[in-house]
Amino acid sequence: MSQEIFNNLNNEQKAEIKHIRFCKGDGKLSISNYTLHIYSNHPEFGELKGELDLAPFPNLIKIEFKINIQLNILESIDISKNDKLNKIVITLNPYTLFWNCYFIFLVKKMQINRIIISYNETSGSGTFVANKYLNEQTLMSYLVVEDMKLEDKDKKLRQLEAEVVSLKQTLNENDKVIADLNRQIQQNLTLSQFQEQTNLKQETKEHELKNFNSNVCEQKDDIEKLTTTAKNNASDNLKTILELFLQNNKQMIDLLLENSSKDN
């Protein structure tokens, strides 16, 4: 990539460049009188090739192509960020330059009727210097990069619109999930409600057990009284039978009282 040839220039040097001159032959970059000389073949990086972006030179005013220069494998020169550039000069026969070179200029739309192309034109009366705006000449190929950027913006906009639709769908799904959770929460008891119901059930059970124990004790007393009366009035054989029967009942009552106390 040709951009590497600018690596050794510092920011101060780049800022002071007002004129770039493309020259034939081998050589490193050189600066004189605010002019940067770029040779078609760099001793370290070889021939100029690929894309050459002149954005590092914010104060660039003029570009010049010297006679017999060959840029056979250079693809493009990006001048779209050089807002001060107003002139491109071709000192050789322009038809020779663009027959042997196939690069294009990358420009902004506002530059096509501001940058002047200056070249030698031959007519029946001789040779004269022609000056034409970039959008009026047919020698030099250029591409308006803002159009490309606009396409990129449209593409990005479509992507964003698709993302918005996807986000809306996700939000709708989340709203449904939240609504379902709210319904479940309303249907289920909260922890405090559950504890209140548990405590109420426990209190009810304790109350019922107390009533049961009280009734059992009363019945036990009544049975014991009836037993004493029956024993006093019964014969010896009947007393024996009653005692066995009453012992069984007493054991059952004691067992009920014991179980109720455990549950309590």
Topology:
Elements: H1 11-16, E1 19-26, E2 30-32, E3 35-42, E4 46-47, E5 50-53, E6 62-65, E7 74-78, E8 87-90, H2 94-100, E9 104-107, E10 116-123, E11 126-133, E12 142-144, H3 145-187, H4 191-233, H5 236-263
Parallel strand pairs: 1-3, 1-6, 5-7, 6-8, 7-9, 8-10, 9-12
Antiparallel strand pairs: 2-3, 3-4, 10-11
Organism: Dentiscutata erythropus
Protein name: 17789_t:CDS:1
Keywords: Coiled coil
Characterise this structure:
With 264 residues, this protein is α/β, with parallel strands linked by helices. The chain has three domains: 2-140, no CATH class; 145-188; 199-263. It has helices at 11-16, 94-100, 145-187, 191-233, 236-263, and strands at 19-26, 30-32, 35-42, 46-47, 50-53, 62-65, 74-78, 87-90, 104-107, 116-123, 126-133, 142-144. Strands 1, 2, 3, 4, 6, 8, 10 and 11 form an eight-stranded mixed beta sheet that branches. The model has no long low-confidence stretch (mean pLDDT 79).
| Percentage beta strand | 15-25%
From the alpha carbons, calculate the radius of gyration and give it in angstroms.
53 Å
Shape: rod-shaped
**Unreliable segments of 5+ consecutive residues:** none
- Overall pLDDT metric: 79
How many strands in all? 12
For the largest beta-sheet, the strand count, sense and barrel status come to: 8 strands, mixed
Counting structural domains, the number is: 3
Q: Can you count the helices?
A: 5
The chain-level structural class is: alpha/beta
Keywords: Coiled coil
Protein name: 17789_t:CDS:1
Organism: Dentiscutata erythropus
Coiled coil: 143-177
